[in-house]
Design a protein that fits this description.
This protein has about 260 residues and is of the alpha/beta class. The protein is built from 9 helices and 10 strands. The chain has a 6-stranded mixed sheet with strand order 6-7-8-3-9-10, sandwiched between helices. It has a 4-stranded antiparallel sheet with strand order 2-1-4-5.
Amino acid sequence: MSGDAPAIEASGLTKRYGEVLAVDDFTFSVGRGEVVGFLGPNGAGKTTTMRMLTGFVPPTDGTATIAGHDIFADPLAARRAVGYLPESPPLYPEMSVEGYLRYVATIKDVPRRVRREAVDRSLERCGLVEVRRRVIGALSKGFRQRVGLAQAIVHDPPVLILDEPTVGLDPIQIQEIRSLMADFAAPGEGETPRAVILSTHILPEVEAICRRVILIHQGRKVIDQPLSELIAGGQSLEEVFGRETSRDISAGAEGAMENAP
């Protein structure tokens, strides 16, 4: 992928479930080094969009590229280029932290010769070295969330999609996870920056870490602007969110099916 090309580029993404239009002609892009807040009320189409980008749900229309890989023409490569943390991380409570990350690295096709290094790197970056041999089910919620982040980055993907990564955490844990997200997007010298999409209902989270906001409402994109522009003049992100999501923009639509299979 060219250094100037977006890490995520979606064009006209559309998803129908029968008569319900869950996502309607959604076009956007995210560059490396960006942390983009992806907002919308329940049923807006956020989860459906993330599932299309991560390959779990095929679009009805439109297309997208992930790190230059088309989700239709090269779906396996596109999926390998994404690290995905769903709201409920796919953890196996009976496995050790290290064993689970080795398993994830294997199914994500991390080459055997570098697999141990990849696991060690994700353990270190997510602050899990001290609990690497602990059983996941015995960990606190904060540590389990770290394990979820570690599985998302163990294959060193150029794109991270994080769905409610700090829900249920205490303030100290929230700050730690925020720092990790910022480091993923803009790592140290010699490391490649990633594109990060952060989907959350916690608006202060977006204000704390994101420089840009995409708001989806009734399946359509209604805002795609730098955060600084949205809150210029003293208005809060909460006020912007409330104003934009109170409008009926889809005449007669019943809303999206966020949890449709």
